[in-house]
Write a structure and sequence with these properties.
- It holds the Pfam family PAF-AH_p_II.
- This is Alpha/beta hydrolase family protein.
- One of its GO terms (molecular function) is hydrolase activity.
- This protein is an alpha/beta fold and about 425 residues long.
- It has one domain: Alpha/Beta hydrolase fold, catalytic domain (Rossmann fold).
- About 30% of the residues lie in helices and about 20% in strands.
- The protein contains 10 helices and 13 strands.
- It has helices spanning about 110-115, 165-175, 205-215, 215-245, 260-270, 300-305, 325-330, 355-365, 370-375, 380-400, and strands spanning about 60-75, 85-95, 100-105, 135-140, 150-155, 180-185, 190, 200, 255-260, 280, 310-315, 335-340, 420.
- The strands form 2 sheets. The chain has an 11-stranded mixed sheet, with helices on both faces. A two-stranded antiparallel sheet has the order 7-8.
- Helix 3 (about 205-215) runs antiparallel to helix 4 and helix 8 packs antiparallel against helix 9.
- The longest helix has about 30 residues, at about 215-245.
Length: about 425
């Protein structure tokens, strides 16, 4: 994005009228992301915050490989003169992780881009070591090939890198899933390709242009952004099918989940492409509207519904009774579905922000309001445990046929934070 000194960071609420919450955007007319309207007081000492992610709980070590994928049949929809190019991370259960190093959550190029442009409001720039966080995935560890492994795709929120869902992708891999996390190039804050080339988001400029043109242009941008994400996902599905056909993966059911616009993409892809057997949407509205609770501009998945199983998990205040697009999906769908609310959660609670933001606040002396404004009042450990339990149980039930997903049958005393709607 434009980083000239005359570009001023102006912050806004996610619920503000000009926000594009259908995409998880909170960009003002200045074209710069934001999340809160309050200034943050920070200590003058030049401390740098460093974070740790929670360790996965499954029985397998986690291996990983990053892949550059080029869709030679599709021109890039955001820039001219090139084919569509993506980066994906593949997480998988490993036979052994000995002597294989753990990989960082973000590369240095991705971290620099994320420091400049992110959806975390006015966190101090240059004070957070985004590239210093290690995941629990080990580079190139040999895969455990005992039996077919269900495949789960992951799509992040608009502006977010694929790595901001690491807690859940590592968790699913540790329970025996092959997880493919997708970066949507020129949508994500920054994508680093082999050789060190970094492509940064174009959406702030696109949103500024659309706002100048009027409401119809803003809706058109939302439609385009979601359509690009679905096209990216279907291309990745083609690559998964190729891996099945060549024996690199044993054929198994495929599911998908995502946060915000990634949750939208998961359900829309399930609607458009029968290869997705089950989808989980983590607080993603399914309409092209400026507020989750607005009527109108429904997506086709909300209008038509789906036949397969899906899971909705919302922040506090988001459920099918007050999010019209969720209600439409619910009413038009024939298959199994659940609508859950995580009490005390905010939109970003369904990302790695849940564990990272409190650590940053403690180390940099940020006020508690910064933490609760971004990830809510639910304690981080409880939020992480609940997401892990319900997302894993959902895919266990519908991709593996395991009855152990009893958390999905009704309220559980183990997770009183989770409300069944």
């Amino acid at each position: 994005m434009d980083t000239n000194s005359d570009t001023k960071t102006k912050l806004t609420s996610r619920r503000r009228v000009l926000a594009v919450s259908a995409l998880g955007l909170a960009w003002t007319a200045s074209g710069v992301p934001g999340a809160t309207a309050t200034a943050v007081a920070v200590d003058s000492a030049p401390r740098t915050a460093r974070m740790k992610l929670p360790a996965p709980t499954g029985p397998y070590g986690v291996g990983t490989v990053s892949l550059r994928l080029v869709d030679r049949r599709r021109a890039d929809p955001w820039v001219g003169g090139r084919r569509r190019e993506l980066m994906v991370d593949v997480r998988y259960p490993a036979r052994s992780v000995d002597s294989h190093p753990r990989v960082p959550q973000m590369t240095k190029g991705e971290a620099a881009g994320f420091d400049r442009v992110n959806n975390f409001g006015d966190l101090p720039k240059g004070r957070i070591d985004w590239s210093g966080t290690e995941t629990f995935a080990h580079l190139g560890a040999p895969p455990d090939r005992r039996g077919p492994r269900p495949v789960v795709l992951y799509s992040p929120g608009v502006g977010d890198p694929r790595t901001l869902g690491t807690t859940l992708t590592d968790e699913l891999a540790s329970h025996g899933y092959v997880v493919v996390a997708i970066d949507h190039t020129y949508d994500a804050s920054a994508v680093e390709f082999p050789g060190g080339r970094v492509e940064t988001t174009l959406l702030p400029q696109e949103f500024e242009r659309a706002q100048k043109e009027g409401p119809e242009a803003v809706v058109a941008l939302m439609r385009k952004t979601c359509a690009v994400r679905v096209a990216d996902t279907r291309f990745v599905l083609d690559e998964v099918e190729r891996a099945f056909a060549t024996g690199r993966l044993e054929r198994a059911p495929i599911g998908m989940f995502g946060q915000s616009a990634g949750g939208f993409a998961a359900l829309q892809t399930m609607h458009d492409d029968g290869r997705i057997a089950a989808a989980a949407n983590l607080d993603g509205v399914l309409a092209y509207v400026s507020d989750d609770h607005d009527e109108g501009e429904l997506s086709s998945v909300a209008r038509d519904g789906v036949d397969g199983p899906f899971l909705l998990m919302g922040m506090d205040g988001d459920d099918r009774t007050n999010v019209p697009s969720w209600r439409a999906l619910w009413e038009h769908s024939d298959g199994w579905h659940r609508d859950l609310v995580l009490r005390g959660a905010q939109h970003a609670t369904y990302t790695d922000a849940t564990s990272m933001i409190p650590q940053i606040a403690r180390q940099l002396g940020l006020p508690q309001e910064t933490v609760t404004g971004l990830v809510g009042t639910v304690p981080a450990a409880r939020a992480i445990a609940a997401q892990r339990a319900y997302v894993t149980a959902f895919f266990d039930r519908w991709l593996r046929g395991r009855a152990g997903g009893h958390f999905l049958d009704g309220p559980s005393s183990k997770f009183p934070e989770v409300r069944f709607v």
